[in-house]
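Regression test case RT-17, inverse folding.

Input:
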C-alpha cells in the first residue's frame, strides 16, 4: 500500500505574506508528483487569498471562515485564514487525502497557534523573529498524526449478499453501491473516483454516508 501523507503544513503571515513556519511531513524525491507548477499554484493561491482578505476587510466583510481549495491531478492545496492571529495556515497534500478532515485540522491548528503564540506574533511583526514559533512543529506533528490524519483506504464491513439487500431496501443508491463494492482496503477515494469516472468530492460524500450506516470502515 502506498503511504499517502500531507506533504507540508505552512503558516504564513496574512498581513505581509511572509513565511512564518513550515513543517514538512514527507521528503519528496524525483518520482513524487509535487511538481514546480504545484508550488507555483500554491503561491498564486496564497497571494490571491491575501489580496481577497485585505479587500474584504476594507469593505467590512466577514473573513472569519475563509478557506480555499486548489485541486489538481497530483496534489491538493488548502488554505485557511485564522482571523484573530491574522495568519494563513495551509496544507499541500496528496489528492487521496480527505479534504474535509484536513480543513478541520487546519482550523484546529489555527486556533491552537493563536492561543499559544498570540504575544509572539507582535514580536514577529516588529522584529521579523521566527525562531519563537519553532516549537509549534510539535503541535503540527501531533494534530496531523505525522501527516497521516486524512489518508483513507475504506474497507467493506458486510458481505456481498448483505450489501445487495441494503441496496434493495433503498438505504444506499446505485453510486453508493458501486463505491462500496470497490472498498477493499487498498483502493483510495481518488482511485475509486477515477474507476467510476465521478468526482472525488462525491466519493468522499458517499464514503461518509457508508461509514455512518456501518457498511464500510473508513481508515
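Golden output:
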Amino acid at each position: 500500500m502506498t503511504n499517502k501523507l500531507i506533504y507540508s503544513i505552512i503558516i504564513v503571515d496574512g498581513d505581509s505574506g511572509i513565511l512564518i513556519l513550515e513543517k514538512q511531513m514527507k521528503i519528496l524525491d524525483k518520482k513524487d508528483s509535487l511538481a514546480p507548477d504545484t508550488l507555483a499554484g500554491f503561491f498564486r493561491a496564497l497571494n490571491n487569498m491575501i489580496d481577497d482578505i485585505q479587500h474584504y476587510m476594507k469593505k467590512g466583510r466577514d473573513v472569519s471562515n475563509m478557506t480555499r481549495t486548489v485541486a489538481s491531478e497530483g496534489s491538493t492545496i488548502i488554505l485557511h485564514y485564522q482571523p484573530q492571529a491574522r495568519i494563513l495556515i495551509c496544507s499541500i497534500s496528496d489528492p487521496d487525502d480527505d479534504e474535509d478532515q484536513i480543513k478541520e485540522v487546519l482550523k484546529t491548528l489555527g486556533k491552537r497557534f493563536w492561543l499559544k503564540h498570540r504575544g509572539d506574533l507582535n514580536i514577529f511583526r516588529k522584529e521579523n523573529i521566527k525562531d519563537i514559533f519553532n516549537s509549534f512543529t510539535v503541535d503540527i506533528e501531533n494534530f496531523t498524526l505525522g501527516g497521516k490524519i486524512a489518508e483513507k483506504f475504506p474497507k467493506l464491513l458486510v458481505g456481498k449478499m448483505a450489501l445487495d439487500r441494503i441496496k434493495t431496501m433503498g438505504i444506499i443508491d446505485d453510486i453508493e453501491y458501486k463505491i462500496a463494492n470497490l472498498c477493499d482496503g487498498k483502493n483510495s477515494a481518488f482511485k475509486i473516483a477515477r474507476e467510476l469516472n465521478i468526482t472525488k468530492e462525491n466519493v468522499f460524500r458517499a464514503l461518509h454516508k457508508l461509514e455512518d450506516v456501518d457498511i464500510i470502515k473508513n481508515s
